[in-house]
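Researcher: We plan to redesign the surface later, but first we want a full-length starting point. Tokens attached.
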């Protein structure tokens, strides 16, 4: 691609649309998207890029705070496309190694909550099909919290998080206002909404409908293909110890994505990195994770979230032309 004499806005719109994905699983996070990714990857006519990519909002610090680094020279290392658009687009295109005739797909759960991703995807001269899996917003919010807990990013317990930093776990459950951005920038025929609960209850029907949407043969899936269930969660033995570990570990810095991103960040010989390894080893001994540990949630906290989302989700049926609201919030 030739990026000379192009404006910043033009950097996000490509002429060679053949290298773009044909469809994207855009969220919601903690709603079965990884399982859906694995199912679609079993189809011989589909190529799924590995992992989550997060390209179309790679420079959005709200969606990807871990993609940015503040160094010892008091400078930020970021993923701004104007820094080097060719590096970013080449990095993205290399994620797709499809054979001739295969549909190319990717899975980035931040996209649903990212208006800039909706705008950039919708601006392409290609009808990229979006797939969104929506889970009961309270269940998704709770799952989001426990994901942050076990991955080292929650620093407060659930109730304190809801008091001091509610956006960190609630924001990605605000489906109606997020979907409005996609209906604004994409044709309705290029948006497919799936309910997580239906995917779990009746995967054969949902995958059949999804196959029609993607124009692939449903008969090329086996019964075993539909039994994929990824991201089974191991929980820490003690939530209190986990939170103390998270707070201490985050003070020592971050390097998780430093070598993954298109614009690399060299962490260097950091003594904190060694300290983190030792801390992690000690913590895994005294507070192991296991499938046998199950978190408990106060019933009043569930009701608190239900009451909030019952108001926030009004109008989602009219937007999607689906019966979602009463499925999640039956009349009292």
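Model: Full-length starting sequence:
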């Amino acid at each position: 691609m030739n990026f000379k004499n192009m404006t910043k806005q033009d950097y996000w719109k490509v002429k060679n649309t053949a290298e773009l994905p044909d469809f994207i699983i855009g969220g919601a996070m903690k709603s079965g998207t990884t399982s859906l990714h694995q199912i679609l990857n079993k189809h011989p006519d589909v190529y799924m890029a590995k992992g989550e990519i997060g390209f179309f909002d790679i420079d959005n610090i709200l969606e990807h705070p871990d993609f940015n680094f503040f160094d010892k020279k008091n400078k930020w290392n970021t993923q701004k496309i104007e820094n080097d658009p060719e590096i970013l687009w080449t990095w993205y295109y290399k994620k797709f190694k499809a054979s001739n005739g295969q549909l190319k797909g990717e899975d980035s759960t931040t996209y649903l909550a990212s208006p800039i991703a909706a705008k950039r995807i919708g601006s392409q001269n290609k009808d990229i099909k979006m797939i969104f899996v929506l889970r009961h917003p309270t269940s998704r919010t709770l799952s989001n919290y426990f994901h942050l807990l076990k991955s080292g990013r929650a620093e407060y317990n659930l109730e304190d998080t809801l008091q001091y930093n509610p956006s960190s776990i609630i924001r990605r459950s605000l489906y109606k206002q997020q979907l409005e951005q996609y209906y604004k920038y994409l044709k309705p025929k290029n948006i497919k909404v799936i309910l997580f609960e239906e995917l779990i209850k009746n995967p054969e029907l949902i995958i059949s409908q999804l196959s029609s949407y993607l124009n692939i043969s449903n008969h090329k899936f086996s019964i075993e293909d539909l039994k994929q269930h990824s991201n089974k969660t191991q929980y820490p033995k003690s939530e209190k110890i986990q939170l103390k570990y998270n707070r201490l570990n985050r003070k020592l810095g971050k390097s998780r994505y430093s070598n993954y991103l298109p614009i690399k960040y060299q962490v260097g010989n950091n003594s904190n990195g060694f300290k983190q390894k030792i801390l992690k080893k000690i913590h895994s001994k005294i507070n192991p994770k296991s499938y046998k540990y199950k978190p408990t949630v106060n019933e009043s906290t569930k009701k608190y979230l239900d009451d909030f989302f019952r108001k926030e989700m009004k109008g989602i049926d009219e937007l999607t032309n689906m019966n979602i609201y009463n499925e999640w919030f039956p009349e009292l």
